[in-house]
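User: Here's a structure from my thesis project, written as structure tokens. My advisor, Dr. K., wants to see whether a designed sequence matches the one we expressed. Can you design one independently, without my sequence as a hint?
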């Protein structure tokens, strides 16, 4: 099995080292193509307005001046002699659950693999809090990752599906359960901008999260992290809301309208 690894924390990230160890328990044909610098929160962004530079760091290891999506596109189409059988993205420093999935570079790397028709898995390790001095329990992802991946690969997947695996902020001997979950949603007020002032008296902003404690519904990826469980969520990219499609067909269909309602 040929495995391609990517991430959004960058080529030098601890989580990528963890992912390499996980991958090498499954195969000896492991390729790495990751951003040269951190690309967290870039989602499915691709680089269109400037060239991409590739630095070959080893026979099967590349750093790219672009996003996780860029990395997967380049690896599959240009850098690898043959397409991979599996794309693994991560292991992210911090979980990717709830609405994180829509802007996560980690999930985006897996989504691009899926777009190429390659089975793809995003993996993330939850943190107590997102701070430079906090060390993630990489040993938790490394302990359970190989067996989870192998079991996922034994099952058929639907077209357009990626698997999003999140490991809780616990040591391996404290993790007692794994749960197949659905994507949850936080209070939208969690995200905000912190205003600061530079040395010239001009305002600038840092995007941030308030981190307030919430009670999340049972069965969601957010609740699984709260309860110290491993979360496995099948995701897909189809954003169509079918109930609205069916509802709108009653008022919009056939010849396009010309009269303004109520005029």
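Assistant: Designed independently from the structure alone:
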């Amino acid at each position: 099995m040929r495995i391609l690894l990517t991430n959004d924390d960058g080529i030098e990230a601890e989580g990528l080292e963890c992912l390499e160890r996980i991958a090498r328990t499954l195969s000896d044909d492991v390729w790495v193509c990751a951003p040269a610098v951190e690309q967290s929160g870039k989602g499915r962004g691709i680089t269109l307005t400037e060239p991409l530079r590739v630095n070959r760091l080893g026979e099967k290891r590349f750093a790219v001046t672009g996003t996780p999506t860029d990395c997967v596109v380049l690896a599959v189409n240009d850098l690898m002699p043959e397409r991979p059988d599996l794309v693994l993205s991560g292991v992210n420093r911090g979980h990717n659950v709830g609405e994180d999935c829509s802007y996560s570079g980690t999930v985006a790397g897996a989504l691009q693999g899926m777009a190429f028709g390659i089975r793809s898995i995003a993996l993330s390790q939850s943190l107590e809090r997102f701070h430079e001095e906090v060390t993630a329990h990489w040993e938790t992802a490394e302990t359970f990752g190989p067996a989870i991946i192998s079991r996922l690969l034994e099952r058929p997947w639907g077209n357009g599906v990626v698997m999003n695996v999140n490991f809780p902020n616990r040591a391996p001997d404290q993790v007692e359960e794994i749960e197949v979950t659905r994507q949850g949603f936080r209070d939208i007020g969690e995200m905000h901008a912190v205003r600061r002032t530079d040395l010239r008296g001009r305002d600038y902003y840092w995007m941030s999260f308030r981190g307030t404690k919430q009670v999340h519904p049972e069965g969601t990826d957010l609740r699984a992290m709260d309860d110290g469980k491993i979360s496995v969520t099948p995701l897909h990219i189809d954003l169509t809301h079918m109930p609205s499609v069916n509802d709108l067909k009653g008022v919009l269909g056939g010849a396009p309208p010309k009269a303004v309602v109520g005029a």
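When you compare it with your expressed construct, this may help: The CA atoms of residues 141 and 167 lie 6 Å apart.
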